[in-house]
Every structure is written in C-alpha cells, then in structure tokens.
Amino acid sequence: MSSLMKFIQTGLLGDISIGLERNVIEEILGEPQDISVSAKPRIAKYGSIQFSFPGDNPHDTLQSIHLYFDEVIEFPQGLQFEGWLPHKEIGVKEFLDCAKQLNVVLEEDSLHTFKNLQLGFKSKAEVIVIFYIEEGVEKLYSIHLSKK
Length: 148
Description:
By secondary structure, the protein is of the alpha+beta class. It has helices spanning about 5-10, 20-30, 90-100; strands at about 35, 40-45, 50-55, 65-70, 105-110, 120-125, 130-135, 135-145. It has an 8-stranded antiparallel β-sheet.
C-alpha cells in the first residue's frame, strides 16, 4: 500500500502522527521551508505539506497535517511517498476507485461538502479528502487530519 493511502487509512504519515512533538518532527524532516508569521497556531511548511502546532514551544504537539495538491507537489526529503500518488486534476470517481482497489474506505462527509463548491470524504481514521468544484469539474484540493 502507498504511504498516502496508509495515511488516509490510519492517520500515520510515515513516522509522523498527531501528538508528536515539534522537535521530533524537525529531527525527521529538518527545518521547515517556511513558518507562519503568527505564533499561534504555528504552521510549519514542508513543500506541499503543512503541520500545525498550538504555539512556538519545541515540545508543542502536532495538531493537524495538511497535504495540498497544487500545480507542483513537493514533499520533504525525509518523507517520500511510494506507489500511487494523485494529482490535482484527478476526479472524485477515479480517486475513490483507486482507494477502493487499495481497500481504503471513504465515505462522503456532509461537514465538508458544500453544494456545487466542494465535496468532502472521510476515512475511518478521520482523515478528510477535499475536492473543490470549478466550472463543474472536481479537482483534488487537500487531504488532512486534525486533532479531535
């Protein structure tokens, strides 16, 4: 199974999980490429992935993981995905078909679905997959997990 599908199915992004301390994530991935201007929440950006922490303390724990699918998808050296990796232009049906082939169950999520604007799906691990709708075409926007 690909690391991305494992994340959707389990909430684990390689060795990274919700609740991990910021300093441990920086040991795994190195210094972030960018850090949010505001201290609360502190958002650390590594290519197409963003990690959110409640503050600026190195022992603060990870609150959310967001993967964004833009024109260019970049991942940090310490976190390379294997296998299937979707792109921004993938539609809902193709994405759900791939997930089903890999035994990943996704159900429509009414909390993240807005008529004619976006479709949201949720895994059993509470990972959310968001597609936005542009001129009637669905496009993958993000995959994310937040602390409950």
